[in-house]
């Protein structure tokens, strides 16, 4: 059995087939303190996260698109890869993604972050044009351009929720 608390505070319980509901209930009850702690952490992160006006969002999207287009062109040439369209959105759970067709999607809030984080995200997504997974071969492609990618990735994990 497994428990997950999403950023919005939703609690998900996964139970294997054949487990009786009473057993699942006991499992949840045994972990109620852990669940409450995680929900409180989610609320703290949400309270610390700034609220952006529509005007700020639109300005951020324009800036992000400009910055990300430049960085995609620069790094794609260095890495010898191509890509499709570059789209800037406000995803709730992702900073970037690369579709099977090579289209790149980025979160506009990257424009608020240090430049080295943008570089890491762009290289990360472009590396999917070589390896469409997160295998050791994928990370080797990232490391060719961003040798300290682990530090940048950790920074994003530690600080991303603040944006």
Structural description of this entry:
With 163 residues, the chain is mainly alpha-helical. It is 53% helix and 12% strand. It is built from 6 helices and 5 strands; from the N terminus they run E-E-H-H-H-E-E-E-H-H-H. The protein has helices at 21-30, 32-48, 54-79, 115-127, 136-145, 149-159; strands at 2-5, 11-14, 86-89, 96-98, 104-107. The strands form 2 sheets. The protein has a 3-stranded mixed beta sheet with strand order 3-5-4, with helices on one face. Strands 1-2 form a two-stranded antiparallel sheet. The radius of gyration is 19 Å and the shape is globular. The mean pLDDT is 94.
- End-to-end distance: 33 Å
Q: Determine the strand fraction and express it as a percent band.
A: 5-15%
Radius of gyration of CA atoms, rounded to a whole number? 19 Å
Per DSSP E runs of 2 or more residues, the count of β-strands stands at 5
Low-confidence stretches: none
Compute the number of helices: 6
Give the helix level as a range of percent.
40-55%
pLDDT averaged over residues: 94
Biggest beta sheet summary: 3 strands, mixed
Shape: globular
Spatial order of strands in the largest sheet: 3-5-4
Order of helices and strands: EEHHHEEEHHH
Determine the structural class based on helices, strands and strand pairing: mainly alpha
Protein name: M48 family metallopeptidase
InterPro entries: UTP_pyrophosphatase-like (IPR053136), YgjP-like_metallopeptidase (IPR002725)
Pfam family, one: YgjP-like
């Amino acid at each position: 059995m497994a428990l997950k608390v999403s950023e919005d505070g939703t609690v998900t319980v996964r139970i294997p087939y054949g487990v009786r509901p009473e057993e699942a209930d006991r499992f949840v009850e045994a972990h109620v303190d852990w669940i409450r702690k995680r929900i409180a952490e989610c609320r703290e992160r949400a309270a610390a996260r700034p609220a952006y006006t529509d005007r700020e969002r639109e300005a951020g999207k324009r800036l992000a698109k400009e910055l990300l287009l430049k960085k995609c062109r620069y790094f794609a040439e260095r890495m010898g890869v191509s890509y499709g369209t570059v789209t800037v959105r406000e995803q709730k759970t992702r900073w970037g993604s690369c579709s099977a067709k090579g289209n790149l999607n980025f979160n506009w809030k990257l424009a608020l972050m240090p430049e080295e984080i943008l570089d890491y995200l762009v290289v990360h997504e472009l590396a999917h044009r070589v390896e469409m997974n997160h295998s050791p071969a994928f990370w080797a492609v990232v490391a060719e351009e961003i040798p300290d990618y682990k530090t940048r990735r950790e920074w994003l994990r530690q600080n991303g929720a603040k944006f």
